[in-house]
Amino acid sequence: MRRPGVWFGWTTILAVVAVVASPIVVLAWSLIDPSTNVWAELWRTRLPGMIIETALLLVSVVFGAVVFGTGLAWLVSAFEFPARRVVGWLLVTPLAIPGYVGGFVWLETMSDVVGAREARSLWLCAVVLVLSLYPYVYLFARASFVDQGEDSLAVARSLGAGKAGVFFRVALPAARPAIAAGAALVAMETLTDIGTVRLFNVSTLADGVMRVWFGTGDLGAATELASALTGAAVLLITFERLLRSGGRRSRGSTEAAMNPRPLTKAGVVAAIAVTLAMLVIAVGIPLLRLFFWASESVRAGTAVTVAGGVTHHLGNTMLLAGSAAVVSIVVGTILALTVAHRGRVARVVGRISTVGYAMPGPVVAVGAVVMLAALDRRGWLPDGFLLVGSVAGLVFALVVRFLAVGYQGVEASLDRVPTTATESARVLGAGPVRTAVAIELPAARFGVMAAFALLCVDMVKELPITLLLRPFGVDTLSVWVWQATSESLWEQAAVPSLVMVVIGMFAVGALLVALERGAELVS
What we know:
Helix content is 77%, strand content 1%. The protein is mainly α. A two-stranded parallel sheet has the order 1-2. Helix 1 (4-30) crosses helix 17.
């Protein structure tokens, strides 16, 4: 007969997985009987163009992010130059600037140079997304380069390999899985983006879901189009796993870490010029223009919407983002602790809960609406209370989308806790809860901190799910930016954008502190 704790543990795992994965399962189930009329109409009108533009944007952004992210990571990891450590961490700060914020800044900036019509192009949209998303690749690549041992690099140099040879023949192949993980995050963010692509008139599949939803109110058509987006996400995941196959080589316990090599004077000048140029373009210019527009908006008294001012939107943002982040980290921590000691099968089952992170935001929103509407029709809830259009429904959808960040971040930290420590606690009579509180959670605290920081970055700037599912009158900072930029009111969008950037900077700072203390990035 099994112990009650075993049954309780498996019940917890299965319950969390069932609830979190249900919107995706519901969406997949609805595709068993697809509407041929809807697909025929979509294919006859805009679907081919959406597929082409989505593919072009995806390839362009991923390629650019991999080139810049990997190149900058190798520069600050392998070479010594003044202020290298400071610059190395500053290169992560573009993560705090949402793509749609950088998008309207550069759209207006380039419109002054080449004209508004020419500026609204797929290629400028790709550049903006690269500037916003390359830190994902940069962080993963840098962690991998730092983890590579000096001995293998020294052997390559002794065999006559120059700087380029060491990079392309040794360092880059070893970092391939990490770069692929970062590239996968960039691809998913690009696939789910609607704010930036709408600014540049790029017709993607995610934007198509939004247009069908708001334009026709046809949930069936939106569901059918979301399925195409899901198919694209599955292909991306499969391709990423193929690239990551073969594992990675880490340095041994006795092998010295990579030793940054000094540069010539010309090399130092080039390194400083490249990194500063990236920081000025990705962070400096957007912040300067936002400050200028924000000051103009405040002086003109336009830093307000029909719903309210900064305080109203900030309060809603902190309520939704904070609630969803706390729920995600708490549920993710409980799931990771429950899974940790139950073997490979439990880990595989637990990973099902992360499926939402691999799905674009509009797909999760559609699946959540279908499932929540079905629950509302059951009449199980008190009279007058509906899940669709409620704060609870929105928080649920956000947790479905981002639970993976909390779960995988904590799981990676728990994997580093010595088994001897937990086994000793069990021998001394400590139960699972006491062992978790006394040993596992303190050891994983920086992993929890990093996961929570990433959740805050994602939640604050999240747009598709919030825009689709927010209750009436509950407008966030991201929705304010969306509404203002939809009407080309750049000055009115500057104030909420700056507030989001400030929150994002604090979260990125917390992330960097956690990474310095030993937290790991996961994908």
